[in-house]
Amino acid sequence: MAMKGQENSTLDVLGRVCPYPLVLTKKALEKLGSGQVIKVKCDAPASAEESIPKFCEKQGYTCEVEKVGDGAWDIYIKKA
């Protein structure tokens, strides 16, 4: 993972179900400066594999999703 270890902040949305991981990720990204990276810890499959990556693509943000365990993902997002 190119962005792993470069995160400026971490957002823990473990235990949250759709749409909360995406909503909380959007709010966290608003506070982030251009070029900064956030790590989102997520255990909601639809959010980790679909909604958050699709949102990032639409916004032009770089997004890398890493499965880190049984039903858990780390999502690295670099704000454009």
Please provide the count of β strands.
Answer: 4
In DSSP terms, counting alpha (H) and pi (I) runs of 4 or more, how many helices? 2
Q: What about the largest sheet?
A: 4 strands, mixed
Estimated radius of gyration: 11 Å
Order of strands, main sheet, comes to: 1-2-4-3
* Secondary-structure element series: EHEHEE
Descriptors:
single chain, alpha+beta, 2 helices, globular
Walkthrough of the structure:
The chain has 80 residues and is an alpha+beta fold. A hairpin with a 2-residue loop joins strand 3 and strand 4. Helix content is 34%, strand content 31%. The chain is globular and about 30 Å long. The model has no long low-confidence stretch (mean pLDDT 95). The chain starts with 8 loop residues before the first strand and ends with a strand. A four-stranded mixed sheet has the order 1-2-4-3, with helices on one face. It has two helices and four strands, in the order E-H-E-H-E-E.
